[in-house]
Amino acid sequence: MVVPVYRGAESIGPLQKRVDAALAGEQGGHEIIFVDDRGGDNSWEVIQALSAAHPHVRGIRLSRNFGQHAATLCGISSARGEWIVTIDEDLEQPPESLPSMLAKAEEGHLVVYGVTEQRSHAWWRNLTSEVGRSLFKFAIPTLNREYTSFRVIHRSVAAGLDRFQSPFTFIDGYISWITNHYATVVVPHDERVHGSSSYNLRKLIVHMVNIFVTFSDLPLRMATWLGLSASLGGGLWGLAILVAKLTGSLGVSGYASIMAGMTFLGGIQLLILGIFGEYLARINFKTASMPLFLVEQETRQ
């Protein structure tokens, strides 16, 4: 099991106990890998204590904050089991659902997501999440709309994740490229007990933009259609002015309408340039070959 940790000092101890209880009946044993994503609290000290007390608990500390998806990929690359579970540390995803998810995976599915019918997040986060999922599904047809961070992944899929080196990571986008052989299991969504979510509206929007630009050419196609629409609109406008001039019905042109047209067209041009700039920036980051994460310390190999 892989658990990315960001300011989770109070929750990872109870999580470890609940995971051990949930998997007590599973054959072959299990390991828990806590990846400290440098949230600024004493999570690493708690991880070290858990690792010292429990041989099946391992800890990895990153050199700085790389983000949830990068931290999760770090843990996946270090996992040794046939099935790799990823789960958040905030206890909103109940570990007691693991046996049913693993049983579903044993039916022949390479990936199993634990999905919820009702989330306990704030209304604005649920709304932006639903809108984002619908847009992602439109832009990335192979993506499972019901993806979550509560996953069971077969080792064959996990091995393929190591080949992706984009600095703008999205694990479920990678999985959709590797396989479409997935299933879902309905699980409860519990209330967060400790702290508050680190995701705010700005971070969610940035995450959505990164997914669109990294995994889809939809923004480029939108820029093309915006440019064509603006050109067509400008041509029709010019034709209407010419007809009005020839028929003598053209009055004195207004300064406001001219400025409005210039501002509109200038905004479209800047938007299109911005979209191209986002793609160029990702090409630059990719060619720079920057690592997704850097490990600073481990409790045990």
Task: Summarize the structure in words.
- The structure is a single chain.
- With 301 residues, the chain is of the alpha/beta class.
- It has ten helices and eight strands.
- The chain has helices at 12-22, 43-53, 68-78, 98-105, 123-139, 155-161, 171-178, 201-215, 218-247, 255-288; strands at residues 2-5, 32-36, 57-62, 83-86, 111-115, 151-154, 182-186, 295-298.
- Helix 1 links the parallel strand 1 (2-5) and strand 2 (32-36).
- Helix 5 packs parallel to helix 8.
- The longest helix has 34 residues, at 255-288.
- The radius of gyration is 25 Å and the shape is elongated.
- The mean pLDDT is 83.
Tell me the number of strands.
8
Strand order of the largest sheet: 1-2-3-8
Rg is: 25 Å
User: Average pLDDT value?
Assistant: 83
- Oligomeric state of the chains present here: single chain
Distance between the termini: 15 Å
Largest sheet: 4 strands, mixed
Q: What structural class should be given to the helix and strand makeup? A: alpha/beta
- Architecture (CATH level 2) name of the largest domain: Alpha-Beta Complex
Q: What's the CATH C level of the largest domain?
A: Alpha Beta
The CATH superfamily title of the largest domain: Spore Coat Polysaccharide Biosynthesis Protein SpsA, Chain A
Q: Kindly give the count of domains.
A: 2
What is the 3D form? Answer: elongated
Strand content: 5-15%
Number of helical elements: 10
- CATH names the topology of the largest domain as Spore Coat Polysaccharide Biosynthesis Protein SpsA, Chain A
